[in-house]
Design goal:
Blueprint: H1 16-24, H2 40-51, E1 56-60, E2 65-68, H3 90-93, H4 98-111, E3 115-121, E4 124-126, E5 129-131, E6 134-143, E7 149-158, H5 160-182, E8 186-191, E9 196-200, H6 202-208, H7 212-215, H8 220-223, H9 232-242, E10 246-257, E11 260-274, E12 280-289, H10 291-313, E13 316-322, E14 328-330, H11 332-337, H12 348-354, H13 360-373, E15 375-383, E16 389-400, E17 406-415, H14 417-439, E18 443-447, E19 453-456, H15 458-464, H16 468-474, H17 482-498, E20 502-509, E21 515-526, E22 532-541, H18 543-606, H19 612-643, E23 649-652, H20 653-663, H21 665-671, E24 674-677, E25 682-685, H22 687-703, E26 712-721, E27 735-743, H23 775-785, E28 789-795, E29 799-807
Parallel strand pairs: 24-26
Antiparallel strand pairs: 1-2, 1-7, 3-6, 4-5, 6-7, 8-9, 8-12, 10-11, 11-12, 13-14, 13-17, 15-16, 16-17, 18-19, 18-22, 20-21, 21-22, 23-25, 26-27, 27-29, 28-29
Helix pairs in contact: 18-19, 19-23, 20-22, 22-23
Domain Histidine kinase: 583-809
GO molecular function: phosphorelay sensor kinase activity
Catalytic activity: ATP + protein L-histidine = ADP + protein N-phospho-L-histidine
């Protein structure tokens, strides 16, 4: 070992490298001179300096000569001042910082003041350049043997690395805070076991529904108490104690927002934060509000379910075909279309082999087109396992890989057998229609639902002399007479807007320039839903009929004048007829009354003088007179029914029945009859005539009742369209009031259902039932006066039913 002992008196002993350098240096050429003459205080100070393990530096004497120990040596670097500055004056040794440190040393030298600095930047030359060096140091006065301040003792430590690390940490923390604040995610940090919120960016505050003052520097579970019952504390505790990362996706969390508890879906993670000693002292939470995405997913899932339902309802089979691997995956419906069970494979080979051989080229061409435009679409025939065939429609979307090569096809297959066969039938039907239309002399034409004419038969072109191109260019109104165009257009627009049949008379121009009258008709053709699919129309030449009609109208005018005179004459005749009816009834009944009077007198005065035959003859004479009187009354009623004024009034049938029952009170009581009625119609009728009708029918039921059977008469009514009743004579679209009168009397054979309404028709002898056979004829006449219909049905010994149908005016 090298001897570090001093070779000169007064020099320090030991001190490592710097002690050796001090001892070996020639100090005679320095301001301090021979070390033997150095003051004891200097030697003592150097011994202290060199023995210290803490970096120390000494400036001594007026020139502030430089000394330093081994601990200070590393701060000078490998290419700098060491060992040159040893024994050198301070100003010469440290020119780059002299302006910084000289004023500090002056304070120590002049005032004896000790100074302390921490992490002070003092750049020095080292390692071949000026470097920023940070120091924590103290300047203390060093005294000579006379206790005067002779130098400055520096105790120092280079803190460059610590300062730079601290600044790096500060920058890192500032950068972290800046990143956290600007991050698109919700980020927060929590310190300590109580998870005090240290940092919370704007997104986190927005997610929590809180302001910064509500959460910062506060335990997060106190700031947001609703989290405590949702298992969040347990998650934080586990991360804080174990350091295990926790992550969750689409976790539902309930948070108060605007005073209302809302469910928020969050993707978030908790990570442990470590201090410089590697101990967990906090947690960082990173979250993303994915509520919108979750709701969108749910909506998509719901839509997918709906789509699946729609696809199933639309009878579509779905498939995915990998073009490279030729793998084919198909739905249950696809298997059904191919006539296979769900357990049977439907690979690409089976798919292609099932295509009709004549349609393979169609499929190939469709795939070639799809590789260019991305859309696959074709129709072909499919041969099923049972050798039957069906038509299919294949559609798909081609997906391309990153190199723009076709990768796979997603699509649908639909069974269009029914549609195809129907279309073929329709085409055949249309062909037959056109063939038939071209063979007709009438003009046949069709139009779409909007009224645009799109087809004319051959007759139209032959009549007009127009070519199809010209008619298409000029329009069909070109052949309509100018005076008829406006009315034609208005009538056509009305039909199109209302859906009602089109009917119009107009003139068409013939190829020779003349015009002929046409009757045009068009009917809408409806689908099952009642929607118009097209219009089919025809135009028939009515020119000759029109000319005839014009001539007929002229003749009608002439005949009308004659008819007016005849009507006037007829009115006079009706008046005369009324007078005749009155006179006839009066004059006929006068001698009849005399016959009845004298016969009654003879019977009262001469009855005992008459023989039995005479009595019988008188009795028969009186009966004949009564029948004659009844017949005259009935004939008069019948004639009045025909000539009476017809004044219709809204009438409640219930009220009318009540009045009839009062009129027939004694007769109903005598027969012990029961009349049952429903709530009857209110209808526009001639009240006094209809009262007579009801009285005749009820009297008829009483007259033809069964002996020892209590008469029951039922009267009901209902309203409806003619088509609702089982009677061909009724107009289908007119409203009727249907009145039904039934009894349980003697009835009649069905062969007499029409005959009973004729004048003087009797189905029974006058010795069985009294009557003239005019009552039902009057009923029929009254129904006719109301433009209605009456029918009768009977069953012997069970009763009769009369159905009356009156149109509602």
């Amino acid at each position: 070992m090298k001897d570090l002992r001093s070779t000169s008196p007064g020099l320090p002993i030991g001190g490592g490298e710097m002690g050796q350098l001090i001892r070996e240096k020639d100090w005679n050429n320095t301001p301090l001179g021979d070390p033997a003459k150095w003051p004891q205080s200097l030697r003592t100070t150097l011994n202290i300096l060199l023995a210290s393990k803490f970096p120390k530096f000494l400036w001594w004497g007026p020139e502030l000569t430089c000394f330093y120990n081994d601990s200070y040596r590393p701060s000078l670097g490998v290419d700098g001042k060491h060992p040159t500055i040893l024994g050198m004056s301070g100003e010469v040794a440290w020119p780059e910082i002299w302006h910084i440190i000289k004023p500090l040393m002056d304070k120590v030298l002049e005032n004896g003041e000790s100074l302390w600095f921490e992490d002070l930047l003092v750049p020095i030359y080292r390692n071949g350049k000026i470097e920023d060096v940070y120091w924590t140091f103290s300047y203390s006065p060093a005294r000579d043997d006379d206790d005067n301040i002779a130098g400055v003792l520096v105790t120092c430590a280079e803190t460059t690395q610590e300062v730079l690390l601290k600044r790096k940490l500060e920058r890192s923390e500032r950068k972290l805070r800046l990143i956290i604040q600007q991050a698109p995610a919700s980020i927060a940090t929590f310190k300590g076991p109580n998870y005090v919120t240290d940092i919370a960016n704007a997104n986190a505050l927005q997610l929590w529904g809180r302001e910064a003052a509500d959460v910062l520097k506060k335990p997060i579970l106190e700031a947001i108490p609703e989290l405590a019952k949702q298992g969040i504390k347990e998650l934080l505790d586990d991360v804080y104690k174990t350091g295990n990362r926790f992550a969750a996706s689409e976790l539902p969390v309930k948070l108060y927002r605007d005073g209302k508890l809302e469910t928020v879906y969050i993707n978030f993670s908790y990570e442990a934060l470590y201090n410089t000693e590697g101990i967990i002292d906090g947690i960082i939470g990173i979250g993303h509000d994915v509520t919108d995405q979750v709701m969108a997913h749910k909506k998509i899932e719901a839509n997918e379910e709906k789509l699946t339902m729609v696809i199933d309802a639309s009878e579509l089979g779905t498939y995915e075909f990998n073009i490279k691997t030729k793998k084919l995956d198909g739905s249950k419906k696809l298997h059904e279309i191919f006539g296979l069970s769900i357990n049977e494979d439907i690979d690409h080979t089976h798919f292609v082999s099932s295509i009709h051989p004549k349609d393979l080229e169609i499929r190939k061409a469709a795939f070639e087109r799809s590789y260019e435009n991305g859309i696959l679409e074709y129709t072909s025939r499919l041969i099923l396992p049972d050798t039957s065939f069906r038509w299919i429609e294949v559609k798909g979307k081609v997906h391309f890989d990153e190199e723009n090569n076709p990768h796979k096809v997603l699509g649908t297959v639909r069974d269009i057998t029914s549609d195809t066969l129907n279309r073929q039938k329709l085409e055949e039907s249309e062909q037959k229609f056109r063939l038939l239309a071209d063979s007709l002399p009438q003009h046949i034409w069709t139009a779409d639902p909007e009224g645009n004419l799109n087809y004319f038969n051959k007759s139209v072109f032959e009549f007009s002399g127009f070519s199809p191109e010209r008619l298409h260019q000029e329009g069909w109104l070109a052949i309509v007479h100018p005076d008829d165009k406006e009315g034609n257009i208005n009538a056509w627009i009305s039909s199109i807007s209302t859906g009602k049949d089109f009917l119009f008379e107009h003139r068409f121009r013939k190829y020779d320039g003349t015009y002929r009258w046409q009757l045009s008709r068009a009917k809408p053709q409806l689908n099952e839903d009642g929607e118009i699919q097209m219009w089919v129309g025809s135009s028939t030449d009515i020119h000759d009929q029109k000319e005839f009609t014009n001539e007929l109208e002229r003749l009608v005018v002439e005949r009308t004048n004659e008819l007016a005179q005849h009507v006037k004459d007829l009115a006079n005749m009706n008046k005369e007829l009324q007078s005749f009816a009155y006179i006839s009834s009066h004059d006929l009944q006068e001698p009849l009354r005399k016959i009845q009077t004298f016969s009654t007198l003879l019977l009262e005065n001469e009855y005992e003088n008459l023989t039995d035959d005479g009595k019988e003859h008188f009795k028969r004479m009186q009966n004949a007179a009564k029948r004659m009187q009844t017949l005259i009354a009935d004939l008069l009623s019948y004639s009045r029914t025909s000539i009476a004024e017809r004044k219709f009034e809204p009438t409640d049938l219930n009220k009318l029945i009540t009045e009839v029952k009062m009129d027939l009170k004694e007769e109903l009581a005598f027969h012990q009859a029961v009349i049952n009625t429903d709530e009857l119609c209110i209808i526009n009728i001639i009240p006094f005539q209809f009262r007579q009708l009801l009285q005749n029918l009820i009297s008829n039921s009483l007259k033809f009742s069964v002996k020892d059977r209590e008469p029951h008469i039922s009267i009901s009514s209902e309203k409806g369209l003619g088509r609702d009743f089982d009677l061909e004579r009724l107009s289908p679209s007119i409203n009727y009031c249907h009145i039904r009168i039934s009894d349980n009397g003697i009835g009649f054979e069905s062969i007499y259902s029409e005959r009973i309404f004729e004048l003087f028709q009797r189905l029974h002898g006058k010795d069985q039932f009294q009557g003239t056979g005019i009552g039902l004829a009057i009923v029929k006449k009254i129904v006719d006066n109301h433009n209605g219909y009456i029918t009768a049905q009977g069953t012997p010994n069970q009763g009769a039913t009369f159905d009356i149908y009156l149109p509602e005016n």
